[in-house]
Amino acid sequence: METLPCQGCKGLCCGPVPVSENELKRLRKKVKAMPAKTRNELKNQQRFPGTCIFYDLKKDRCGVHASRPGVCKAFGLHRNLVCFKNPQAALHKDWKMEEPASGILSVDYTWKDFSS
Ligand code: SF4
Ligand code: SF4
């Protein structure tokens, strides 16, 4: 299987992404389960404008990896979600959301929606 050379990208492709209600639920659960120190540390990072609110710049990886939305899991591997660093990895047919999007993470949903 083709892999993606993600290390060192510093969240280059991690911007606003569509999320469904169920994906939001999973993200809320994940954020709630984080130790307070980890959650605050992630929340208070200074990100580039447009970088996903969950991107962990210090660790250079997704801060919610196991609970990330479907589009993040699909990115780079589908013909309509090509990664310019390895276009050959986009072998699968066009990706579609399984459930309707309820909004855009990082735009409609920000840290204040995950803080309680
Ligand atoms: S999918 Fe591509 S652009 Fe995104 S982090 Fe990985 S290598 Fe970088
Ligand atoms: S949820 Fe994770 S993988 Fe998806 S855009 Fe945000 S940081 Fe990137």
Short description:
The chain is of the alpha+beta class and 116 residues long.
Description:
There is one protein chain. With 116 residues, this protein is an alpha+beta fold. It has one domain. The protein has helices at 21-33, 36-43, 70-74, and strands spanning 17-19, 55-56, 61-62, 103-105. The strands form two sheets. Strands 1-4 form a two-stranded antiparallel sheet. A hairpin with a 4-residue loop joins strand 2 and strand 3. The longest helix has 13 residues, at 21-33. It is globular and about 40 Å long. The protein starts with 16 loop residues before the first strand and ends in an 11-residue tail after the last strand. Residues 14, 17, 52, 54-55, 62, 64, 68-69, 72 line the site of one iron/sulfur cluster.
Structural class: alpha+beta
Helix proportion range: 10-25%
Strand arrangement across the biggest beta sheet? 1-4
Question: How many separate domains?
Answer: 1
Biggest beta sheet summary: 2 strands, antiparallel
Separation of the first and last Cα atoms? 40 Å
On the 0 to 100 scale, the average pLDDT is 94
The succession of helices and strands, N to C, reads EHHEEHE
Quaternary structure of the protein: single chain
